[in-house]
Structure formats: structure tokens, C-alpha cells
Model the fold of this input.
Amino acid sequence: MSPERAHPPPATTPDALEQQAAAVAPLLEDSPEDLYENAPCGYLSTLMNGTLAKVNGTLLSWLGYHREELVGRRRFADLLTIGGKLYHETHFAPLLQMQGEVHGIAMELKAKDGARLPVLVTSVVKTDAAGEPKLIRTTVTDARGRRAYEQELLRARRAAEEAHREAERSREHLHEVVAVLQRSLLPPSLPPVPGLETAAHYHTASPDHLGGDFYDLFSLGGGRWAFCLGDVCGKGPEAAAVTSLARYTLRAAAMNDADPEAVLQTLNSVLYERYAGDDPRYCTVVFGLLEAPGPDDAGFDITLAGGGHPPALLLRDDGTADFVHTPGGVLIGILPRPPLAVIHTRLEPGDTLVLYTDGLTEARTPTGRYGDERLLAHAADLAPSGAEPTVKALTDLLESFGAGLDDDTAILALGVPARAHENPTSSPC
Amino acid sequence: MLKTSTRHTPAGPVLDVRGDLDFHTVPEFRKTLEGLSLLPGQRLVLHLAGLQFCDSSGITAFLVARNLAATAGADVALAEVPDTTLRVLRIVGLDQVFAIEPAERAGADSA
Done:
């Protein structure tokens, strides 16, 4: 049943129209005067000098005045607040004089008891037959509802602004938490290794997400040091948890048995057991052992084990550069006992070994992914180069990728100072 | 963008993968994998000739396929792997883990 059916059907014939008019007549105002006096808005008329000439009952009741207190005694402007008076003088009256009418101006009237009444004012100048202005007719509409609405809008806007500030604060807090956690996945600083220069850089792709790259360098005692660099698949808290697990497992395993292959097999067992199934968590890692042969020898012997990680870079003293491949190693955490590649190499004075994650080679450039070839060519241009300047150059390279670098990237460089710059007897371990 | 289509052969399903396997498309790819029916002894072939881009999320997806196949008692192979992806597979050692078929499968040989 539609709602219209509840009302009488519309009159269609002249007879019916007449009957309907007769039915509603008693409900209508019995005179125009009554309509004027008790209209749902205020009416007033003023002489051209502003003196009130006529005010209706509605407006009088709003303001709390008797008719004789206003008519012939006060001007329209006297009913306005101080701000309203000023506005009336400077804008309202001149506009009215110029245009002959002004519509819907928001003002505040002052009631007899001092209360303020927000209203919308419309005025029209009445002219005589010769076009001379004689009278100003004004309607005053109660705008308290509208004012309340405006205040509600204002309140809602302030609430939205506060919510926005709160969201900004939350975002800043998240960034702080992410930054603190990210730092916890990396050593606060690299420990000094006698006879070795070290440098590292971590590029965070997004302040909103924890990255999964890590590196570490720590002493095993007896002139031996362990270093590692890796990349856990994925991003976010889950990846960070694996990163943390990987880094501490590597440390603990190396303390027990520093053989790089054994260390990576231990890490593999831990990850494989924990993350088998349909949510594989794995990482690629390079783990290495540094041994200083003796006080008379400035170089380091290196044993390097790789589990599916991109090849390290060796920048040599003679100005050449090569990849140090650990071929055949499988990424850590997906097979019960993965094949791992172990190689031996040596860092001579002036040589620098660079480990990196694939954020570097996978960076997008206008001519495709940056790639191994360009990285090797860049390394050859840099060589010979110490750890610090090499990491600086690669950091600059990462920055030059701009938005093309959308992955976290870790870089760790280990360099033996060149002979010309080093007292050969100063590096006992 | 990722498009997949499945062909069924007596030796097992062949999943044709075209487009990008990355962080954005891998969840959809995983659903496709989980919807495949694999019988013990069959081989799932991921046909990758149309693969445009594959990052570490894609590598994870291959491993998911391998684990799903293993659970079903089946095997998995990668066919016509583009050079760039093959290079990544070699770096992470997965060329030793997956059977890699150079072209369309001729028969149901095992790895």
C-alpha cells in the first residue's frame, strides 16, 4: 500500500474543487493582517532614514519588545549587535541603496534581554510611482537551526582534523617502531677488526615496512672473525622475525662450530623445521670466516659459504674486479639438507670484498634492470678502492636509482688497507 | 598483470603462466595452484615461456607449487624458463631443485 493512498484523492471536477476549498477555509488565516502579524518569520518596515515604522508580532515576541518601544523610536540598526551595526553601515545599507534589494544576509539581532538571535535578513526598497524610494521592507528568518548546523559542521571538521593529526601521529609512531626494529636486525656498529677496514650500508625501501635484509660481523676469538649478509624472502613483521632468527642462529652456530658450511646447515635446519608447508620462509645467505694468517702478513684468508646468494664482488689492488661465485649453493630453508658452495679466497692489501643483496642488481633503470654486468663494470671502475669509499660509491649508486629501487638493500664491504697507506707491523690480532 | 590457463594431459596438468609473478600477482597464482588436481605420480608443469617478470615472490610461488605437488605425491617441473628467470633460479640454486624442461613436454619422464 503506497503512502499516498492514505490521503483523500485529488479533486478533479469543478464541484469537487469547490467542496475542498470550503473544507479548508476555516483552517486558513482569516485576514492578511493576521498572516502579517503571526507569520513564521519576522517582518519590519523602516523609513528611508532607518526608523522602524512597522514590526510584526512574530519579531516582537522573538526580541521581547513591546511594539511602542520600537516603532517610531528605534532604528533597525539599533536591533543589531555591535559587529552587526558595523556590517550594516559598511555593507548592508550601501548595497541596499545601490541595488534596491539585499538577500539572505546572516546577522545577529539583540533581544531586549541581551540574548543574541542569529537571523537571515532580506530587504527590499519600496518606491513610489515616480521611482522615489519610500520604504524598506525587511523579512527576518530565524537562523538558529542553521547556526547549529554550521556549528555541527565546524565541530565535525575539527574532529576530522584531530583524527587526521592522530593518524599522522600513529604513522610517525609506526615509522619509529619500524626504524627501531630494523636497527635491531643489524649490528649498531661494525666492531673494529685489526688490519681490516669495514663499512656497511642499509637502504630501507619504505618507512612503513620492515625489510628482510641483514648483515653482521663478529669476533670468534683467536684472530678469527665471522661475517654474513643475507636476504629473507618477503617483507614485514613475518620476514623480520625470520631475519632476527637467522642472524642470531648464525651467531650461535658460529660460536659452536665456525666452519661456514656447518653454520649454514644449522641455519637451514632451523628454518626448514620451522617453516615447512605452504608458507615457505627461506633466505639467501653468504657466511664467511676471516683469518689473519700472522703478524707479518697483512692479508686475510677467507672461507666463504653461499646459500643461493648473488656472488660477492672482489675489488683488487691492481684495479681489476671480479665476482666471487659460490656456485651450486641452494637457498636456505627449503630442502632438508641443501647443497652448499664453499670457496677459499684471500684478501691481499688493497683488496676489498663486497657483499650485497639483490636490491642493488634488481633496481630498475631506464635501460632495464641494473644487473650483474653493469655492477661488475662499475666495480672495475672503482678498483682499487677501500671499504669506506666503495660503500660510499655504491650508496650513491643506490640513490641514483631513485624510485627504481623498490627493495631493501644491504651492502657490507671488508677491505685490507693498501700497503702504501699502512704500517705493515701494526696489525697483530 | 598475470594470466594463467591450465591444460590437462595424461601426465599431469600444464599451467601456462603469462605476465608478471610478483608481490601483487602471487596471491592469485597461489589460489590457482591450490585449485589444481594432482594425482600421485603425476607431474605439474609450469610453462613459463610467457613469463615477463619474476621476483622473489615468484620464486616463493614456485616453492609453494613444489610443496603442493610433494603433498599430493606428485612432481613439478618448469618448462621454457625465460633466460632472466633462469639466471635468478641459478643464483638461488633452484636449478638443482626443479626439473627444468627446455621445451614442450614430450612424455611423462621423471626428473
Q: What stands out?
A: Chain A touches chain B through 25 residues (CB under 8 Å).
